[in-house]
Structure to design on (512 residues):
């Protein structure tokens, strides 16, 4: 068994979500699988960690080549706890997803799916986050699985540079053209709240909004590739230092 | 009043934390202040957003040039709600902190303080996160305030490039040398869990750990500057695309 690669699978929609089940099924042939995922939805958890209360995990299922754990923490907690304490060896690959909903453009910052991929990368393991740009019930994960399996196979052979992880988004159309290497689209969400009232008549705010992309749209943007029927693949880095601005910033703080 | 700049102040330790009070006091002279912060501790919340339940806010205090709001959401929710709905004009600057505890190196990914700064930046506002590398009771925020005020004044005049935000960390020593422009130190946390038991005798895991820095340590690392008695200032970017790896990745996925 130890000759087979070990793949850690997690997500932010919870261990019972359809997307992680499909992902698990489609990666089964590539190695031993450890599914270690939140016990319920943790969408939008980014790289949040749990420190003020303890986390726990439960082994839900064990069969040859597959263990499934449920964890009370965030997606990042799942990766940390699995890698640090629960798994008996270091995973060769972390795959997070398949997320119900896209994580293109700046969503990499908010996404729990991507938080888990970032954590896998920080732990020194080649890591991918996979998302389907459709969160409706009954969305089809087939094309996601096709690209996800291809990428996973590749990464198990070749790895990734230290500090680099991948963000794969797949449009929900019957025949996705191919994977296209892209850059993260720039922009922001606007009109982000729906104002409503609670039962006492006090104002409450529900998060909503639409993405307002910076114009002109760059031809390598992930959003554009998705619109054109491709799966977008953005290589991302853990080091967020803005090296280009360091010298200028040095001058700015010296002048005063 | 509208001639004065508007500074949005938030944090992840909550609106009643000492660090945000000190920050508010020290920025008072620079403009009108809107403090809009979580109603309690939200450490380690990264860029988490609240979408499954609504968020609410409460005006705690209003006096000329200062409004203080408490919010049920995360640090990012605070920035979003303040900028989208509650404030009557767009802030000229977002300052997040002063965090009780350092956010150097890869902590930029986990920190709620930095999550708020990232959100300010995404919203198109010059944004800084400020942290004191000491979370003990009675830690002194004086040097943080000195550097924070200097930076805030500078940014109100000159702004920042689009998509760039600042991560300022200050060591808790009486006389910090100066601000040094740094890069984010590479590394990971190790030995991250203390295993314990709950009242039923079941295992529970408490997050802990120590930072294991990649060796050799780069002379521009933020961790090194702090160790040497400087305040570290890392310019960071919203766009996490690994541009250097795009071409290679393109080849990797074509070959198969």
């Amino acid at each position: 068994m130890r000759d087979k690669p070990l793949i850690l699978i997690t997500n932010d929609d919870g261990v019972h979500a359809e997307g992680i089940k499909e992902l698990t099924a489609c990666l089964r042939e590539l190695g031993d699988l450890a599914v270690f995922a939140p016990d319920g939805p943790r969408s939008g958890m980014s790289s949040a960690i749990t420190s003020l209360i303890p986390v726990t995990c439960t082994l839900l299922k064990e069969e040859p080549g597959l263990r499934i754990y449920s964890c009370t923490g965030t997606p990042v907690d799942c990766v940390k706890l699995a890698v640090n304490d629960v798994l008996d060896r270091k995973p060769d690959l972390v795959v997070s997803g398949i997320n119900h909903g896209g994580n293109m453009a700046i969503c990499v910052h908010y996404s729990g799916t991507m938080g888990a991929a970032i954590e896998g990368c920080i732990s020194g393991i080649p890591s991918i986050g996979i998302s389907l740009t459709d969160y409706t019930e009954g969305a089809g994960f087939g094309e996601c699985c096709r690209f996800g399996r291809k990428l996973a196979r590749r990464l198990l052979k070749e790895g990734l540079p230290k500090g680099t992880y991948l963000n794969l988004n797949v449009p929900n159309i019957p025949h996705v053209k191919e994977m296209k290497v892209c850059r993260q689209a720039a922009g922001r969400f606007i009109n982000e709240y729906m104002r409503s009232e609670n039962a006492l008549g006090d104002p409450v705010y529900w998060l909503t909004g639409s993405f307002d992309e910076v114009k002109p749209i760059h031809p390598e943007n992930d959003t554009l590739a998705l619109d054109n029927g491709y799966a977008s693949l953005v290589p991302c880095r853990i080091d967020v230092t803005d090296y280009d601005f360091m010298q200028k910033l040095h001058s700015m703080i010296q002048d005063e």
Remarks:
- Chain B has one domain: 6-185+219-238.
- Chain B has a mean pLDDT of 96.
- The first strand of chain B starts at residue 6 and ends at 10.
